[in-house]
């Protein structure tokens, strides 16, 4: 299998879209820390590579674009879903992984600082995927690390690869990002993914509708921020009013851990459950998304509806993470 | 190294037994959930592939039959032995693994259901090995998963790969399965492996002897089931009576966790210990097996006896698991 | 990529130093249990291979010298740093790893003995890296294991790969081991690494200075042992007296877990902190080392000083561990 030069030739001889973005290797050696670092052209770049990854996985499953590269998966707060996704991504590109999810037992528990930990791991690995419970941890790590850091979630801060895969899902499911009405539903206060997705959507011509109980409204600061960038946003409390005109329905999990009172949790948790009845209100081409895991926000009876895209969303995540790994390692 | 087509040509040019089973790829894309799904011909198929795996490992250690394939090792109740065996198996076939043994920290602990977890993992992996504490979990997972599920133990239910490796051990050690006297010893009530092995033995012409304390007798329901299928079974309490005529002595661990009372455990635990003295009663060609781990049921002084097959049994397990992976992935 | 014959040809066509040690494959199939097993010629052998590993990693990152080999990483007491280092090492040599750091959940917790565990793992893996909390565990494991065991730390006993990487760091940073003054600072009582390093240094023409608080002095028994072998050693309590003449300053972590009283810990912990002021006293070519993790013994302001070698030391560790793996597997 021939090896490709960084960003200059298509992966394994795929015919590349002549109208697609020029591959200038702009992400080679870069950290992926925040959605804020991505321009519209950057996102088109990521998606162009992610589509090639999709084609390659569908054709051959795995290929050796990153053969010999080693990924350190440093998870201070474990997330099977995200770490599995990155380990699968590096495996499908022919590279290897060092999974580190037992941070509580590690040097860190002996008092080692994050800067020392990443400076140790950069001696072993070519790229570090970091999940951390403290907001800003990825930025700190990046300041000390010569190898690319990919932020896989830091506290209530950023989770840029999730936001990119959410956006890529919309692109793949609908063929465009412009002209759509995107409805976000559920916990819009603590749901990190909807904040990041809203920021990315400011780059496109979309309408956003926010549906939540009063106690879980979208944070005013971020709302102001995205409106200042021209995003059309309206707030609602009733799901039934907005579902019929919705192109993308993005449902979030209401996280029990943010409630002091179990009753308050249950009241809110049950208030926006998507059922077969809800889907009858929706358009034939609506796309139903969820970052997963779900705990009842979408009834299992909806799973077989072709509009239910949340398991395909997982698959798109693999392609986006493969693309990001190849890009920061200078191979796409 | 040339790649082989599914089930049609021998692995890497090995001369295949012309009297062996026709390789029709019958397991491609199938789940491995229960010993009950295997006919005698199926077992011959598995063993024929497992013997090729043995030859290849002995010749070259590792080969690229499953290069590019990714195994998700999803262990809700951790088992170093079984997960290590599967990770070694996929490694020796050139593929990669996603080890997930920290299920308590994962999405599952956030309330995710098994169906959602396997539908997520099938986006990343080509095959899923599942261990779960609930009987029937593997069946549930299989209903929702498009990729093959291999049941690596579900509660007190099934552990089919263990039963197959036990049977393969007998085949390899004695050259046949027919005409043997198999004695099962120890905890026959809770010992999942002896139940599955007994079921598989109904396919062959063997005599089975069950030796246990009264409180740990083989479950009457399963006993009736295997007798109805024609298996000759007798029950005993004294080991000394049956050892001299035994071809295969299968010793099981008495699991402390099933006893409320430590004294009752100790009384039973010590009652059937295999020592050098026991081995003096046994035939020169007897095969001594144990699913491991042991906690004293076989004295360490027996380890150097050539009839002690329990560490070879571990090795045979690698070959059987390599065979099953190659088969469900359509490569054997 | 051509495969090389064990120890007979240079790795991937590298020009080998004609004055270097003859590669006779003397470590093929051997255990690495203690620094005491290494002669001066052995160490030159290890370092000669480690330098080739360094060259190869700098040139190509990863190469297939151990393609198809499987490493079992059996850690009874978890150490992210050491296990990551070995997993990276086998990955960069093209092999695979079975990480086992959850020993508390494993067969071991069901009462399995170390001899049984290693006899199980040798059926799956080609080499076993073992960390254990009990002194002597590696020797026990080696007695039962046909595959090479590499001791990655057993209790307060040995940690030979750390000692070898420490020595290799001195060699690489200063170009020689002879004629140097090596100062060891901090916890010299419980610090396993300084004991092993001192033993290795007896093979070379060096002066050793030991600086510690009274309560953490170097163990008299080991002091006597290394002096009997001709090592020139002096003991000190003041850092300032010895730093100016020091070639190698080896700082150790004061481990909180060894103190019953937090106050006593803090008094000692703060007594030998390396700061920019300390570095002003030091020679321009002094090499500052630390086995990491550190918890304040070296101020972060020193990190950018070119004499601060502790993160390079981590990198050298990768090369040494790659060398040891290749050697015991008969490939160097």
Secondary-structure topology with pairs:
The structure is a homotrimer of 332-residue chains.
Chain A lengths: L39 H21 L9 E6 L4 H13 L3 E5 L13 H8 L5 E6 L4 H8 L4 E6 L5 H15 L6 E5 L6 H10 L5 E5 L8 H9 L3 E5 L2 H4 L5 E4 L10 H8 L6 H6 L5 E3 L20 H19 L4
Parallel strand pairs in A: 1-2, 1-3, 3-4, 5-6, 5-8, 6-7, 8-9
Helix tally of chain A equals: 11
Low-confidence stretches of chain A: 1-9
Order of helices and strands of chain A: HEHEHEHEHEHEHEHEHHEH
Which percent bin holds the helix content of chain A? 25-40%
Percent range for β-strand residues of chain A: 5-15%
Spatial arrangement of strands, main beta sheet of chain A:
7-6-5-8-9
- Described by the principal axes of the CA atoms, the overall outline of chain A is globular
What kind of sheet is the major sheet of chain A? 5 strands, parallel
Q: How would you describe the overall organization of this protein?
A:
- The structure is a homotrimer of 332-residue chains.
- Chain A is an alpha/beta fold and 332 residues long.
- Chain A folds into 2 domains: 11-158 and 317-328, 3-Layer(aba) Sandwich (Rossmann fold), CATH 3.40.50.1370; 161-314, Aspartate/ornithine carbamoyltransferase (Rossmann fold), CATH 3.40.50.1370.
- Chain A has helices at 40-60, 80-92, 114-121, 137-144, 160-174, 192-201, 220-228, 239-242, 262-269, 276-281, 310-328; strands at 70-75, 96-100, 127-132, 149-154, 181-185, 207-211, 232-236, 248-251, 287-289.
- A 5-stranded parallel beta sheet of chain A has the order 7-6-5-8-9.
- In chain A, helix 5 (160-174) crosses helix 6 and helix 5 (160-174) packs across helix 11 (310-328).
- The two termini of chain A are 16 Å apart.
- The interface between B and C is medium-sized, with 32 and 28 residues.
